[in-house]
Structures are given as structure tokens and as C-alpha cells.
Amino acid sequence: QKEVEQDPGPLSVPEGAIVSLNCTYSNSAFQYFMWYRQYSRKGPELLMYTYSSGNKEDGRFTAQVDKSSKYISLFIRDSQPSDSATYLCAIWGYQKVTFGIGTKLQVIP
Amino acid sequence: KAGVTQTPRYLIKTRGQQVTLSCSPISGHRSVSWYQQTPGQGLQFLFEYFSETQRNKGNFPGRFSGRQFSNSRSEMNVSTLELGDSALYLCASSPGTDSYEQYFGPGTRLTVT
Fold first, then answer.
1. What is the pLDDT of residue B7?
2. What is the spatial distance between Cα B2 and Cα A94, in angstroms, rounded to a whole number?
3. pLDDT at residue A28 in the model
4. Cβ within 8 Å, pair B100-A44
């Protein structure tokens, strides 16, 4: 079993839709939870990070962590074509970051 | 502040050769991590350096090595290249002692023929 599981997609949604991206993890000792966005031929870009269970908002993005279920989510409201990218969840623990495989998102105008 | 820079951006090497990749972190960041990214495996952690010391290492063979200099710049070296080493190599720097907040460079695309 991988430490971090993420559906690779692809996921296609119409412009304006709410997007839900999810990951599960296996080790309850993991401490920080991050989401990255990666455009084609670019390095990943840190979107958000959080430590505790609950929600954290930043503009159209909401990160949600449920430590009891070992489940993390990223919601994108009012999705735009410019949101088309691969989204990677990442979890920090034992002095290293472990990444999910990434979900490829396409927002169709 | 300037972002993380990596050189070269693209590289083509032959099996059996060796290669050195360079990474300059964001000014003031002391932690540098290296990753290999491939379509099938995603981002795989190679190693992390903090204040010139390797603090953690992933599950890669000894052909993969790295180092960090006193100015926090880092290099990684791959010796005896194999076809399977073809990948995007990414460097990330972190501002704090704990490296959860990582900022990535654009990567070096290595092709081994």
C-alpha cells in the first residue's frame, strides 16, 4: 500500500463547476498536509498547507483535512480554464514530503 | 525574491555517463530537497540537505548522490546513467527547519539514450 493514494484522473469539468480532489494516507504520524498545482512543463507550485483537521480557505480554494479518516481534500469553487493542471497532494512527516501521484484536471470553457 | 533556479533545464546523456545537476534555492532558505518525477511513479523523494548535511534520503541506489554548499546551493550527481533515469529532476527549497513548506524550481529534464 502506498503511503499516499490519489486518483490520477483525468477529471474533466465545465467552467464554473465545483471541483473536489481527494487523497488518503496511511500513516497517522503525518503532520502537515499540502496541495500543489503543476502546469505542464513546470515545477509544482505550493497552493496551501495546513496542520490541523478542519478547513482552510484561500480565495476559491479550500483545503480540508480529516485526520480521523486519514483523508484530505481540495475544493475549487467557480473553476476556470486556467485551473487546468495536475494537482498533487503532499504530506510531511519524518522530515520528508511524500506526494500523491497527482490528479490531472481539465476545466472546459 | 528570486525563485528556485535549476541548471541546466534540459540534458541528453548516454547510458553509462554521469551527470551533475545544480540548484540555487530561494535566498535565505537553508533546506534543499531533490525529487525525481516520472509519469508512472510521480514525485519520488531523493534526498534533503540542511546546512550542508544530508538530513534524509529516499530509496534510490547509491548512484544518486548530492551535496550542499555553504551558500545553500546544492548539486546532485547521477553516475553510470541508465535508461530508467530519464525523468524530470526537481529541486525544492524550504524556509524553515522543518521542510514541509517547499518551493520548487522548474526542473531539469534528463533524457538518457
1. 97
2. 29
3. 82
4. no
